[in-house]
Write a structure and sequence with these properties.
The chain has about 250 residues and is of the alpha+beta class. The protein contains three helices and eight strands. An eight-stranded antiparallel beta barrel has the order 1-2-3-4-5-6-7-8.
């Protein structure tokens, strides 16, 4: 009986130990199943961040152009006065011009520009009918119309890297025409020898230009001296015009 009792006690203790071990193993499996394996996800996120950072570094930074040079359109309205032989019989008037041009050489300190300019002026004048056959070369009030090709030489200043100021001088030539606006009773023109035909035109001038912080816009003032060639008289004029320019 003692033998059987001892054997029964051994079986009970062994079964208890086995049951306890199984329960611990099951608990370990449950804990492992309840936890997410975040190690792979963390590496994936880190890889994405690295890729984004590399893409940002690889993308070139956009260059901001403070002063834009190149093809442009320019418009000005100013004052036009005739000198020389037309001076005593004319008074000052207004002038309007529209120009297209391009900067063909641009360095920090120097810019070379070519430009085509269409202009029109309106001036008051005294005719022969008003001054008693005084030999006035104009019919009275008259228009000046012309087209000019120019070459501009600009000296840029205002800073070491960004030079917003420009002082320039220009030379050019073209065609001048003053249409006949009035005829007499016989249908002929009322004197005004400057209205006889188109004539040649030469010009020279200087100007000051400032490139604003609106990168494509600049403003300035231009002074041009004109000499008309090929007429019985030699009209000379001076025009001073503020202008605004847009560079594409």
């Amino acid at each position: 009986m003692n033998y059987l009792r001892s054997l029964l006690m051994c079986l009970i203790v062994g079964a208890s130990v086995a049951a306890g071990g199984f329960a611990r193993a099951q608990d370990d499996d449950d804990e492992g199943a309840g936890q997410e394996d975040t190690s792979g996800g963390g590496m994936e996120e880190e890889g994405r961040d690295t890729a984004r950072s590399s893409a940002k570094k690889a993308k070139p930074a956009r260059r901001v152009r403070e002063v834009v040079k190149g093809f442009y359109v320019r418009g000005g309205i100013g004052y036009l006065v005739f000198l020389g032989q037309l001076g005593p019989v004319t008074s000052g008037g207004n002038a309007v011009d529209l120009a297209l041009g391009g900067d063909i050489i641009d360095q920090p300190g120097f810019t070379l520009t070519v430009e085509g300019d269409f202009f029109q002026g309106i001036n008051n004048g005294i005719s022969n009918l008003e001054c008693g056959d005084c030999g006035s070369p104009v019919q009275g009030d008259f228009r000046s119309i012309g087209g000019i090709g120019r070459v501009k030489f600009s000296l840029n200043f205002g800073g070491k890297k960004i030079r917003r100021g420009s002082l320039y001088f220009d030379v050019g030539g073209g065609v001048y025409f003053s249409p006949s606006l009035r005829t007499d009773a016989l249908g002929t023109t009322d004197a005004g020898v400057i209205h006889s035909s188109p004539a040649g035109l030469v010009t020279g001038g200087l100007g000051l230009e400032y490139y604003t912080k609106l990168a494509h816009f600049s403003v300035g003032v231009d002074a041009s001296f004109y000499v008309v060639l090929g007429l019985p008289v030699v009209p000379m004029a001076l025009a001073v015009s503020p202008f605004i320019k847009y560079t594409f």
